[in-house]
Amino acid sequence: MKKTWIIIQREYLTRVRKKSFIIMTILGPLLMAGLWIIPIYISTLGQGKKVVQVLDESGLFIDKFVSTENIRFVPVLLKLEEAKQAFLVSNDDALLYIPRTELSLPVTALLFARSQPGIDLKAVIRDIMRRQAEALKLRAKGMDPEVMNSVKTRIILNSIKLADDGTEEKTSVEVSMALGLVGGFFIYFLIFLFGSQVMRGVIEEKANRIIEVIITSVKPFQLMAGKIIGVGLVGLTQFLIWVVFTGVLILGFQATQSDSIKNAPKHTPITTQKVMPPQQMQLVAEAEVEADKTLLEEAMEGIRQVNFPLVLSAFGFFFLGGYLLYAALFAAIGSAVESEADTQQFMLPVTVPLILSFILATYVINNPNSSLAIWFSIIPLTSPVVMMVRIPFGVPWWHLALSMFLLVVGFVFTTWLAARIYRTGILMYGKKVTWAELIRWFKYKV
To answer: 375 pLDDT exceeds 90?
Structure first.
């Protein structure tokens, strides 16, 4: 045990002192926080008010283009060629041309601009024209568009989990889905990232012949176990630093930019302008605000209902269990080859279950209690990802206990299996290894 601890210390200290570790430890939180901060920061930047000239030959839409805080619509009473020439000498952003039609409503328009117009601007124009066209069609059929708009309703569907004893628990499928996907993805990513580091470390030491010196005083199993645990501790250290510093960066940004975020320019919907009376517009707006509040409250209630101690502890267990299971196999592969180019024939069969579990994540989200999801959350090779996806939806305690037990049995078995290959392959040079050769190594007696 003392020798194994020395190897763990060596692996840990050697790797945390590397420039690559320091650089990635610094860049990791910056990149992860940037994914959250940059979109929010960009939304706080005022892009200026856009000016759009409107040439409506049909006369059916011109009064519907009402200026907002973000877009100013300017009517134009010129012929198309004259309007284009006038637009080119102006500083306006775009020229909207709606042609006159004789037998039908104009449903096609042209938007002239010096460069590609923004997707938001096109969406606003398209929405205004669609609303007006629908209103005109309804009037043509003798139907009041104001009545049609007033009866449109947003439905809020709350989900309640009903236990066998009759107790009720409010849940949020959206929150569970997000937690499951994030947890499963991180386990999948971290197992690949740190497991491959174990394999590269074995290949490097084997290529440099350092292993021949080490193996004279340490048993192969102790060497493999020390390397796996050491790299795992490095990965855990880096991950914890990422989480802490990412949280600090995000919280710091929110604290310093809270006023800017609150005052960020919002896209004012202009989809109901002049389609209904002001009183009805106010009622609809109030209803939409109330619905938005209800959705937010539902999301917050779903977050409060999540058993975070269970989710976090399960994440730690299944990450460590999955890492130990696959790292042992990666170490065995590293001992059997002399370069990373030779690992391809062995990597695919070993990593297929892990890749398959990640692919099945979307199915598991939609069917967390299906037979397929249950079996894949129990089988050790796939349980780290699939069970992590299922846990936020709630799983029976015996499913979780059985999955944990089998995962422990799984990584003990794979460690034993890998050690029998590792003890021979670590000193094997100049030979192209095949699967048949690996089986022979496994059968060797010491």
So the answer is: yes
Q: Which of 53, 57, 43, 50 is nearest to 76 (CA)?
A: 53
**280 in a domain, yes or no?**
no
365: in domain: yes
| Distance, CA of 336 to CA of 330 (rounded, Å) | 10
Same domain, 344 and 235: yes
Report the length, in residues, of the chain: 446
390 is in which domain, residue-wise? 176-246+307-446
CA distance 441 to 422: 9
Q: Which residue has the higher pLDDT, 320 or 302?
A: 320
End residue of a domain, out of 119, 142, 165 = 142
Kindly state the tokens that stand for 280: 């009805």
At 268, is the pLDDT very low, low, confident or very high (cuts 50, 70, 90)? very low
Does 121 share its domain with 233? Answer: no
pLDDT for position 344: 75
Query: 427 phi and psi, to 5 degrees?
Result: -115, 15
Residue 409 has pLDDT above 90, yes or no: yes
